[in-house]
Write a structure and sequence with these properties.
The chain is mostly beta strands and about 100 residues long. The chain has no helices and 8 strands.
Length: about 100
């Protein structure tokens, strides 16, 4: 993965995932996300915070399950620098909330 400087990041929007996490779901950069003239297509980083219940994620094109995938525990933060369209999440138990900030 490439390195990045937090000073050079341009925010593109926010998303919160809640009830949709009962099945594996992907992320969606907000349609109105524009920063310095760059549209959502420019998103290359996501800051993902697990708020209430653990989730699992995969980015290899296969959907995670409640028992298979990379675990993101409550209170943990993931800086994802890759193909955001391949990223999928699922909750491990009811009540999961993910907050996502998108950057270029």
């Amino acid at each position: 993965m490439s390195q990045f400087s937090e000073e050079s990041l341009k925010p593109l929007g926010h998303q919160q995932l809640t009830t949709t996490l009962s099945a594996a779901v992907g992320l969606t950069v907000p349609a109105n996300a524009i920063a310095n003239g760059v549209t959502k297509a420019g998103a290359r980083l996501a800051l993902i915070r697990c708020e209430t219940t653990s989730v699992r994620w995969r980015d290899d094109g296969t959907a995670p399950t409640t028992s298979v995938g990379m675990l993101l525990d409550v209170g943990e933060t993931l800086w994802y620098n890759g193909d955001i369209q391949l990223l999928r999440f699922i909750r491990t138990a009811a009540g999961a909330v993910l907050d996502v900030a998108y950057y270029r």
